[in-house]
Amino acid sequence: MIYNFRLKNSDLVEFNSEHCKIIISKNQGEPEELTLARAESRILELLLMEPGAICSREAILEFAWDDRVVSAGSLNQSIFMLRNVLGDGKDHEIVITVPRRGYRFNSDHMVAPSEAVEAPLDEPQQASPVAPAPSPDNRQGIGTAVILGYLAATVFAVLSIWRLVAWYEPTRELHVAVIKQGELSISAVGKNEQEVNTLKTDISNLNLPTENIKGEVFISRKGSRMNMSCIRTTGHTYNFEFQLQNEQLINMLKKCAGE
Amino acid sequence: MKNNRVAWRHWLVIAAIFLAGLVMQLIALPRPYINSQPYRTEGRNFIENEIMESKEALTISEPSAVISVLERLGDKERHVAVGASLVDTSRWRVKIKVEDIQASSQTELFDVSRHSDLLFARQYFRLGSILSLVIIPTDSDALCYYFLELDRMRCMNN
């Protein structure tokens, strides 16, 4: 990968990360070619993958030395050497130290592609793209693509969970209050919680002789009209609608549940 | 390379999340009814001194549903079949849209002038109307539901 940037004295630098080489095109005189040590080259490559972004010391150690265990001193030494090569040994303006966080490459020194083409260099490669899109996987193990991947996966997972939650979400428009009397279960059903509780109280006050009545009974009341649905012990169902003034609830209950 | 391995671990986690989401999407959610199973019931509507007997059937065959009602009052009979499409289904609710109504007679069996409340409840069965059946939990295989718009409750067995 080819990266272009300028030194503090405006000399144009072409860095070939593959060959660990930098070519410094001076304003006056012949271009100067230098070969970097592998670790320095890797550090520079990592910093140039995303100019301006902070690379932690751990990420640099991991990237520059792969699996080898090296001391922090090795990193300091490599940074020192790299800065010297780039003429940045004094004020650390190109490779900037971010206290307690790591290092970053000063993006102000990057060269736009057009600028690199126009620069007075003889090398044909100078038109190569500047600061090419970093391979996120190669930086700190987590990059833009991975973050986007996590985001997409999270959104997908949230939608999937929401589908389940919405599926099982109990309805708020209907209220049920259950009275258990032996083998008989009576449920007051209605759209209004207060009405349902009143109906439940009314049913409880009836003192139903339930010893011979079994099954499930659901009762709803709309005005003076009652709706009674029953599931008999046989599994058969019956539904009664009646006017409470005309019929007695206990009689209807016996008929519906099948005494 | 070590950081490549780190990246792969991230992608594996992402793939696992996607897979879990996919499983949740594909999982067959339990319906409150058995698809294509005819549910039937019988009923009595006590109208003063008269009793209107009825037989009702409900069959939900996704994405449609049919409700049939056969009413008998004395020697008069009336049959109504309502065809509907399923608008929305969840564990505790089924929403249907009335698409078709076939009635053997346009006249109700009961005296509509004296039992207007009964008549008005039936007015909801109009083409295009959307009705919500809220499922009532039971201890058996029966399907019990409450028509929110009609204030009508039914329990049906298969």
UniProtKB/TrEMBL annotation, chain A:
InterPro entries attached to this UniProt entry: OmpR/PhoB-type_DNA-bd, Sig_transdc_resp-reg_C-effctor, WH-like_DNA-bd_sf
Record field: transmembrane: 142-165
The protein's name in its UniProt record: DNA-binding protein
Domain of life: Bacteria
Keyword Transcription: no
Domain OmpR/PhoB-type positions: 4-107
GO molecular function, one term: DNA binding
SMART domains given in the database record: Trans_reg_C
Pfam family of the protein (one): Trans_reg_C
GO terms of biological process kind: phosphorelay signal transduction system; regulation of DNA-templated transcription
PROSITE patterns: OMPR_PHOB
DNA-binding region: 4-107
Keyword field: DNA-binding, Membrane, Transmembrane, Transmembrane helix
